[in-house]
UniProtKB/TrEMBL annotation, chain A:
Its cofactor is Mg(2+). Signal peptide: none annotated. GO terms for molecular function: CAAX-protein geranylgeranyltransferase activity; protein farnesyltransferase activity. GO terms for cellular component: CAAX-protein geranylgeranyltransferase complex; protein farnesyltransferase complex. The keyword Transferase applies. It comes from Aaosphaeria arxii CBS 175.79. This is Protein farnesyltransferase/geranylgeranyltransferase type-1 subunit alpha.
UniProtKB/TrEMBL annotation, chain B:
Keywords: Metal-binding, Prenyltransferase, Repeat, Transferase, Zinc. The keyword Isomerase does not apply. SUPFAM superfamilies: Terpenoid cyclases/Protein prenyltransferases. One of its GO terms (molecular function) is metal ion binding. This is Geranylgeranyl transferas-like protein type i beta subunit. Its cofactor is Zn(2+). PANTHER family: GERANYLGERANYL TRANSFERASE TYPE BETA SUBUNIT, GERANYLGERANYL TRANSFERASE TYPE-1 SUBUNIT BETA.
Amino acid sequence: MARKYYHDDPKWSDVAPLPQEDYGHHPLAAIAYTEEYSEAMGYLRACMAANEHSERVLELTEHIIGLNPAHYTVWLYRAQTLSALNSDLRAEIAWLNPTALQHLKNYQIWHHRQTIIDKLGSPDGEPAFITAMLDQDSKNYHVWSYRQWLVKRFDMFDGRELKWTEGMIDDDVRNNSAWNHRWFLVFGGTVGEGEKVERDVVVRELEYAQDAIRKAPQNQSPWNYLRGVIRRSGLPLSALQHFALEFADPENRPDDDVFSSHALDLLADIYAAAGKTELAVKALDLLATRYDPIRKTYWEYRKGLLEAEGRKEETGAASAAAVETAAA
Amino acid sequence: MASAQAVPVDEGANLEYAKHIRYWRRNLKTFLPHHYTGNDSMRMTLAFFILSAEDILGDLDGALSPEEREGFIEWVYACQLPNGCFRPSPATDFGSSRNDDNAIWDPAHVPGTFFALLILILLGDDLAQVKRPEILAWLTKLQRPDGSFGETIGVNGRIEGGNDTRFGYMVTGIRWILRGTVEGPIDGIPDINVDQFVRCIQASETYDGGISEAAFHEAHAGFASCAINALYLVDRLPLAAHQTPDNKIRGLTNLPQTLHWLAARQTLTIDEEDAFDTRGDETDSAATCHDAHSFVKLKSYPSATGEQAVRTQPTSHFELQWIGVNGRCNKIGDTCYAYWVGAPLKVLGHLDLLDKKAIRRWLLDKTQHIVGGFGKVPGAPPDIYHAYLGLVILAIFGEAGLKNVDAALCISNRAIRHLESLAWRKSIVG
C-alpha cells in the first residue's frame, strides 16, 4: 500500500497534529515507529481531542487500523463517528471484510463487526464471510466466537446451522472448534441450563460422536463430546462401556489390542465407578506405559487416587468389622 | 506460594543465560523494531515483560542505573490519569488538550493499570503515589451484571472490551495488590461482587473440563489460566479435603475433569508439519496422531498412505524427549501455552501432572532462539510475549539460576515480598 501523509494534504491543513509525549529520557518499550505511523497518530490525537466526527476521520481511522489494528480506542472512536455521521453500515461491512482477512488474529475487529451487524439487524452475508475466514484458518477462535454471537442474536438455532457444522466436522474431524459449536447448538440454545434434554436428542448426539470416533478412534474431540453428553443428560458413564470396549478391553483382549488411548481412559473411570479397581489400574498402567506415555505422571496420579480410595475403604471395612465384633 | 520443585538435571538442554540477558537488555535499552507497532497501545504490558524478565534472570540491578530506575518509575507515573488509574501507553495522551469531553478516548485501562502496578512493585516503588481508593472504586464500575469485567468505560458509561476472563484476572490482580483477599468494603471503599464473578467463571466451564472466554465457547488454556489464577487471587478455588467448608461459592465445579483437560494439553504435535498431518487425514497413526503417540492400532486402513504411515511408525519412545503444550484440543504446541497450562496447575498444587523434563527440553531445544528469547514454535523468531512466558514457565519449573516466581501474578516472589512488606498494605491485609 502506498504511504500516506497529512502535512501536505490541503484537506488537513486546518489541523495541528498532537505529537506523542513520551515522558522524559526513559520511556519504556518505545517503538521505532515509521514516520507514516507517527504522523497519522499525531492527527488522530488532534481529532480525538477535538471530538471531531467527520468523513476524513473515517479515512484517518481506516489508515491507522491498517497500521495498528489492535489500537483499542481507534475502533471505538470509529464506531462513534459512524454513528454520528449516520454512515452507510453496509459500506462499513464491505470495508471490514478484506480488512479482517488481512488481520486474521485481530480481536477488536470482531467487536466492531458485532456492533455494526447488531445495528443493521440482519445476518445477511455473514455466514458466507465466516466461511471465507475459516478457509484461512478453520480453528480461528474469534471467528467461532462471532459465529456463536450471530446464531444467538438472530436465533439461527435451526437445522441449517447444524448441517453447516457437520460439514465443518466432515472437512476435519479433529476440528475441536466445530465440535464445540455443535455442543453450543444442541445444548446452548433452546434447551435451558439444567433442563432435561429429550431422549432422541441424546441418542442422536451419542451416535454422532460414536460414528466420528469409529472414523478416527484416536481423535480426542468426539470422546470429550461423548462424555459431555453423558454428563449433561445425567446418564451413568457405564452407558458407554459397551462402546468403549470396541477399542480396548483390558479384561478380555491382549494388551497390544488397543485402538484408542481415550477408550482406556474412559474404561478406567467406568471400572473405578463399578469398584473394579484392579481393571481400572490395569487400564491406567497401559496408558502410562504404552498408549499415552506423554501423560505418564497424570495416569500415575489417577492410579494413586484409586489406591488411596482403596486404602480408605479397607480401613472403613476393618473398623466396621471391629464394631460388629464388639457388638457381638 | 511454596517454591517450585526443581526439575531433574538434564545434561542435554541448556538455558542460554547470556543470550537471554542480551536479548532482554536490547529490548530494555533500545527502540523496539517497528513491527511492534501493532502493540503500540499496550506498551505497559511489553514494559512489564521486559523488566520482569530481567528480574527473573537476576539482571535487573546490573542492567539499571539508579537514574534509569527512577526514570522508568517516572514514566509509569506519567501514564497515571487524573482519576488515579493508568493508560497503557502514551499513544492516547492529549497532553494539555485533555478535557472531560475527550477523556473517553484516553480512558483508564485495566491491563494498563495492572501492569503499571506490577512494574512499580518490581522496581521497588512504595506505591505511595498510587491512588488506591480511586482505583478500587473504579474496579466496581467495570463489573457487568453477569459478573464479568470489561477493559475500559466508554461512551455513555458503556463497559467496553470482551467479557472474557482476561480482564477478570487483571481486575482481581489489581484488587489483590491493593487490598489482598479481604472481602467487603474497606474504609468506605466498596468491593467488587466476588460471588457473581465466581458464577461467571463457572458458566464458562466447558463440557470437556476446560474453561472458555464465555459460556459455550471453546475451552482455551489462556482463558482457563486467567480464570483459575483469578479464583486464586480472590481465594475462591475449591477447598482441599482437609479444609473446613466455609459455604462460599467456589469456582471449578469439576476439578478432576479440569485437571484431565489441563494434562491433555501436552502434545507431540510441535511443528507445522505435524499439525498439517493431523488435518483432514482419516488415519490415526504414529505419523498422523501425535497426541496419542505411535502405539494405537487401526482396525483397517482407509488408504494406502494410511497403511504406510502405520507400518513405518517409530517403535521407540524417542519422540518423547520433547513434549509441547497446546492451548486447545487438537492444536499445535506453542511456547506461551506452557505457561498458560503450567501456571494454573501450579496454583492448583498439581504441577507434577506435567512432564516437566520433556517440556523443558522442548522449550530449550526447539523454541529457544539462537539470539536469545523464545519463539512461538520451532524456528520462529523470538518475540517479547513468547520469550517472557517461556522464561516464566522454566522459573516455575525451578530452573537453576532463575528467580522463583509467583505463578498467578507472573512476577518474582522477591517482588511480591517487597509488596507485602509495604506498611499501608500490611495494615489492610495483616
